[in-house]
Amino acid sequence: MLDALPIPAAIIECSSGKLSISAHNSRFSDAVAISTAGTLEAVSAQCLAGEGLVYRHLAAWFGDDEGAKSDLDMRDGSGVAARFYQLKLAPLPSNGECRRALLSVVDRTAEEQAERTLRAEMLRDSLTGLPNRLAFTEVVEAAARETPPDCVGHAVLVVDMLRFSRINESMGSLAGDELLITFARRLISALRAGDSLARTGGNEFGIVVALRRGTGDALKAATRIQDAMHAPFRLSELEIKVDCAIGLALMQPDQDAEELFRNAQFAVKQAKASGRPEVYEPKEASLARRRFSIETELRRAIESDQLAMSYQPLVNLKTGEVSGFEALARWNHPDRGEISPTEFIPVAEESGLILHLGRWAMNKATETLAGWDAEARERLPFNIAVNLSAIQIARDDITEMVGGALRASGLTGDRLTLELTESAIVQDPRRATRVFDKLKALDARVAMDDFGTGYSSLAYLQRLPIDVLKIDRSFVSGMMTDPDSVAIVRAVLSLAEALGMSTTAEGVESRELATTLAALGCVSGQGYFFARPLEQAEALPFWLSRLRPAASKRY
């Protein structure tokens, strides 16, 4: 009966605690040696991982030990010549007190080799031959479990090749692949024995570095990598200088491998900004998580109209009357409290939410001014200023946005001043010129905000239709103590007069500053000396309170 089976098989009997083979087929006799004591020694001399392995397995199974399994996996030999077997037990009808089982031997060598080959392919980057992202995670986990005696820990470095997408687009994917292969070879040359390298992304590489003297070893590894990339890469007939950003994260006890890798990736983002290798700092990551949280909640706040607008007066420095208000977005979060614009505006710009926020602010400001006109039952003699972001200039249809807000509110363009930072204008002067021309066609006024901080060319001032220069508070606040600040403000005022522009000083916080600015010829000012940003209901009464007695009769 057993000879009909296509695999090695035998009938095992257990009587009075003793194991014996009562029958077997020819295939089994070729694979199994039977000792004089009647116990199984091995499927082959090398197959058992130790003497008595099969015997102990059978004894546990027949003894009904808790946790005993019917299958036993075994390996014969090592390396490429290794063979793999699986022993399976199936119960047979007992013969009195003698219990019996069918033992079959399955050769799993081909299956095991296929699995290993497939796993090796899954863990290897086909282009560079390096371990891939999945394999790198396993390397990090292994490093966390086993630290060599001469090491104090490990660090993960993430190396990001800069400008790779530009090279790939301009020279083609084949050149890009060649560059990646060469880049990987240089990385290998910069590593020490025991360090592990992997390609973890398109143009991103991960390295596990053993630390023998602490963090300094990781920084030295980063320096070696930068030195290895110093020489230009030769692609076809071109020599290309390739820079890289390097982020480092130190391995902490019981730290998840994925978390450690994300920390190093976060440090890479900082390295791109600073231009030097950066070590991950939990405090910086906490701030990044807060920014991400603010982005999510800001989107909800815009959609549910939870933001508010405050209005800071612009005061004529000669007459003391209010010539206008600057509209400023404010966010009073129900749980976090008031969140400063210096915190949520950059988040809005980075995430693209500034487009929605900018449209909301424009509509809200024009709607408010129209409401004040209706309340006063006349066209009030002041305008309102709204800030525009550089992102809005680059991505949004500013003319359509402003025109739509004017039509919806019923205001004319001369009631509106649009403020752009100097850096936004310098960033793309041609586009700024086109936008300015279209805004001027709507009769809106244009102000250059934070003048003096963006290194703008005088040619821009001469060419662009700018109506107002706003002197940055950093120069205004230092006027009473710093002669250089006075000289700068005086120069800006002279420049504005020569170009036929009006001027506004930001950050006026004392009577002395207001008086000095007026004496120098500055037209208007804004700051805490006059008033903090006011709520909508407070702005109109404030304007009325600053009117001269002769003018107060009209309202």
Automatic annotation (TrEMBL):
<dbReference type="InterPro" id="IPR043128">
    <property type="entry name" value="Rev_trsase/Diguanyl_cyclase"/>
</dbReference>
<protein>
    <recommendedName>
        <fullName>Diguanylate cyclase</fullName>
    </recommendedName>
</protein>
<feature type="domain" description="GGDEF">
    <location>
        <begin position="152"/>
        <end position="284"/>
    </location>
</feature>
<dbReference type="InterPro" id="IPR029787">
    <property type="entry name" value="Nucleotide_cyclase"/>
</dbReference>
<dbReference type="Pfam" id="PF00563">
    <property type="entry name" value="EAL"/>
</dbReference>
<dbReference type="InterPro" id="IPR052155">
    <property type="entry name" value="Biofilm_reg_signaling"/>
</dbReference>
<dbReference type="Pfam" id="PF00990">
    <property type="entry name" value="GGDEF"/>
</dbReference>
<dbReference type="InterPro" id="IPR000160">
    <property type="entry name" value="GGDEF_dom"/>
</dbReference>
<dbReference type="InterPro" id="IPR035919">
    <property type="entry name" value="EAL_sf"/>
</dbReference>
<feature type="domain" description="EAL">
    <location>
        <begin position="291"/>
        <end position="547"/>
    </location>
</feature>
<dbReference type="InterPro" id="IPR001633">
    <property type="entry name" value="EAL_dom"/>
</dbReference>
